[in-house]
Amino acid sequence: MVSIDFIQKSLKVSPFVKGKRPELGLLKISTDSRNINESNFFLALRGEKFDGHDFAGECYKKGVRCFVVEKRYKRKILTSVNDSVIFFVDDTMQALSSLAISYKNEIFANSVAITGSSGKTTTRELIVSMLAKKFNVHTAKRNFNNEIGLPLTILDAPLNTHLLVLELGMNHRGEISRLSKIVKPFAAIITNIGYAHIGNLGSRDEIARAKAEIFDGMDKYGYSFLNRDDDYYDFLKKVSTGEVIDFSHRDLNILEDKGLEGYLIDYKGKCLNFSLPGRHNLANLACAIKVAEFFNIDENDIADVILNFKPVSGRSEVVRKSITVINDSYNANPASMKMAFEILSKVKSRKIAVVSDMLELGKFAIKFHEEIGEYISSGKLCDAVFAYGELSKYLINKVNNNSIVSRWFNTKQELIDFLLGFVEKGDTILVKASHSMGLEEVAKKLIESF
Questions:
Q1: Structural contact between residues 387 and 393, judged by C-beta atoms closer than 8 angstroms
Q2: Which single residue of 33, 206, 358, 382 has CA 20 to 30 Å from 161?
Q3: Which segments of the chain belong to CATH 3.90.190.20?
Q4: Per CATH, the architecture of 317-449 is what?
Q5: For residue 202, which of 412, 409, 360 has the smallest C-alpha distance?
Q6: Region of residue 325 (left: phi > 0; alpha: psi -120 to 50; beta: else)
Q7: How far apart are CA 28 and CA 12, in angstroms?
Q8: Residue 263 forms beta bridges with which residues?
Q9: Model's pTM, two decimal places?
Q10: Topology of the domain covering 108-308
Q11: CATH 3.40.1190.10 spans which residues of the chain?
Q12: What is the pLDDT of residue 14?
């Protein structure tokens, strides 16, 4: 929470008082007029489908008496509110960034920033769990990793925060650079360089350059954590700022691959079961351990996290009932899709894959969906694969293996109705797609029905 004086100093703007000046204490920022009250100040953002300035009057009626708004809307705002403190700025998005930068400096918190094509959220949660054994750690409650969510996460940090652990997402070049300059990371992590967002960026080379923007906000005393198994490791090491610390899944002493039950790992002489399946999750764990050891987290505390860590919902989440559902519905790209099928292939029961479109692949979309279909056919990775979504039609058309049942559906509801009749007790079902395809609904229905 912040004061009026803090807002004024951060924005370098004198407040305008409309009517009688209200007595205001510490206030919490809000950009959402639906969930706001007198304890908040309202920062109005403009989006493609909405304009926060249209809701200033609604916020006033709910008790808000402090506003950060753009100058161009001065007349509208002054007719919508009264007895309020108003900060008129050129750009409220820039104002949001300025507030976050000032607040981070105010609380003297260092930051750990994470980006990459996949594995960001699981890696973040592993790191948070380990660092929280020693420090007051603050991270996003949801997937707040963009130019709005990330500053809001910083501004939500308690005053006693030691470390901010923040995920930096992107769709286009320049976005991570702007986020990095807000975060000013002490430690910057790049999990890997894959094909996510290739539709916007055009090539993996451009994706690597975009991810490398995480170094733009670092100074020479920062530390870069890089995956030495990634084929862009040398490039990232060359352009990184500060000292490079590498990690690899090969750093781990794997005693046994237990399939859907994860891995048996020897860590510092302790035999531990890590519950997340898949080689990609080993890389995520190796990264988290390197970061935790860098911050001098006790090995017993690291071991405790390895042993007790639970997957983030929708990411390698295994739910066991009379059927087993691998709920990996939060996101999908070509590399993570192949990894998910690799995990499924190790199951001994009947293996069913339920998939939908991988998005943001641009001109490569059809090619990558066809490649996944061919990949499924070549290795007999499942007994059946079912899909919906326009792009997934190309995937299904390439499943040319007589031992694999395959079918494409026009709608998600048709897919659900079919599955409820096809799935039997004992089956294992993988659910995988880009988040906006809504396959978490399919996973939920299967879990509820068996």
A1: yes
A2: 33
A3: 317-449
A4: Alpha-Beta Complex (3.90)
A5: 360
A6: beta
A7: 19
A8: 257, 274
A9: 0.90
A10: UDP-N-acetylmuramoyl-L-alanine:D-glutamate ligase (3.40.1190)
A11: 108-308
A12: 95
Mean pLDDT for all residues in the chain: 93
Binning pLDDT at 50, 70 and 90, where does residue 48 land?
confident
- What pLDDT is recorded for position 172? 84
